[in-house]
Specification:
167 residues, alpha+beta, four-stranded antiparallel β-sheet, 46% helix
Length: 167
């Protein structure tokens, strides 16, 4: 009788240990998946901020178009001219700040990327913490770089050499 009781007790203890270890493993897996999701969102936010800044630098968009919900863009420049409202991605919000830089031809542009679902859930006077922020000096508008650079003495000499028969 005593053996049966000890076997039953050992079985219950073994099941309790097994269940505890199982719960710890599940908890670790759940935490790992959460961190993977967080990493993916950070990667998306970084990519969104960098590509938005590149579009701004390239003259493909304006600050006003970037500020607010993210507009979906397929990379086709001609698609911006199609009539109607652009399709937006409600998962992401951009907050664009512009301030003068210490250099007269440059502007300091900061792009904050926010989670769109968090934006809707906050109070009007509170803005959610940005997932990612990118600040860069950018040449905008009338301060943009000219299409052609002025020739210097070296370029003039090369041009004359080429016209006169080469080097």
């Amino acid at each position: 009788m005593r053996d049966r009781g000890s076997i039953l007790l050992e079985t219950v203890v073994a099941l309790a240990i097994f269940a505890t270890v199982g719960l710890l493993v599940l908890s670790s897996v759940r935490e790992g998946l959460g961190r993977l999701e967080q990493s993916w969102r950070m990667q998306q936010a970084v990519d969104l901020a960098r590509s938005s800044l590149a579009r701004l630098e390239g003259g493909l968009t304006t600050i006003e178009e970037l500020d607010g919900p993210v507009q979906l863009w397929d990379g086709d420049i001609s698609s911006d001219t199609i009539a109607g409202e652009p399709e937006v991605d409600p998962r992401w919000m951009l907050d664009v700040e512009v301030e003068p830089a210490e250099f007269s031809t440059l502007t300091r542009v900061t792009i904050h990327v926010h989670d769109g679902s968090v934006q809707d859930a906050t109070l009007e006077d509170e803005s959610p913490a940005a997932i990612y922020s990118l600040t860069q000096l950018v040449r905008l508008g009338e301060n943009a770089a000219p299409d052609t650079l002025p020739e210097n003495d070296l370029m003039e000499e090369i041009r004359r050499s080429a016209q006169g028969g080469g080097f």
